[in-house]
Design brief:
Elements: H1 4-11, H2 21-29, H3 35-43, H4 51-62, H5 68-76, E1 87-94, E2 97-105, E3 110-115, H6 123-137, E4 142-147, H7 148-153, H8 155-170
Parallel strand pairs: 3-4
Antiparallel strand pairs: 1-2, 2-3
Helix pairs in contact: 1-3, 3-4
């Protein structure tokens, strides 16, 4: 019998490349393990095949990425020149409700939400999202949502749009 952390590290090279990240992300999201425990397990396997990819994944998880879409957006859209240092998975309380924001630009009070293809296509989920967005607007936080399709197929446009929104929110109001 081995600990989950060690099992995830040991099984990393045994899984097909496209399926390697999902078990690690799931285990961390479900609080079955932590990035810190996975780092310790990885330290004990210095010659692990494709070790750099697991190290990158653990770094992204530590940075607040909680899904493959979060990671994709982080690496290809929401970092680099002009982008603020977004805070990821920021806990915000409004009234009795607690929410976690995907990407928060604090100074501009803009929350970027990355909507996955499966969950956010459901009309009930859309209603929940709209109510959540309205609640955040009541405390001055603008929510900008990008669908999976746009994020993946139009990353440059999403980046330009994000920068324009941030610039508009940072500019002083006109008299």
């Amino acid at each position: 019998m081995t600990r989950l952390d060690q099992t995830l590290v040991d099984s990393w090279p045994l899984l097909p490349y496209a399926e390697r990240r999902a078990p690690v992300i799931h285990a961390v999201n479900e609080r079955l393990t932590t990035a810190e425990r996975l780092w310790r397990a990885l330290a004990g396997v210095p010659r692990l095949p494709d070790r750099p990819a697991l190290r990158t994944l653990l770094t992204r998880i530590e940075e607040g990425c909680r899904s493959p879409l979060d990671i994709w957006g982080h690496e290809r859209v929401f970092t680099g020149p002009g982008m603020p240092a977004f805070r990821r998975q920021v806990r915000v309380g409004v009234g009795r409700r607690t929410m976690y924001l995907d990407l928060l630009a604090e100074r501009e009070r803009v929350n970027i939400e990355l909507d996955g293809a499966t969950t956010h296509g459901d009309p009930r989920q859309r209603e929940i999202d709209l109510r959540r967005d309205a609640l955040l607007a009541s405390v001055g936080i603008l929510v900008v949502r990008f669908a999976h399709r746009r994020l993946v197929h139009e990353p440059d446009e999403v980046r330009r749009e994000t920068l324009a929104i941030l610039a508009a929110r940072a500019a002083p109001p006109r008299p």
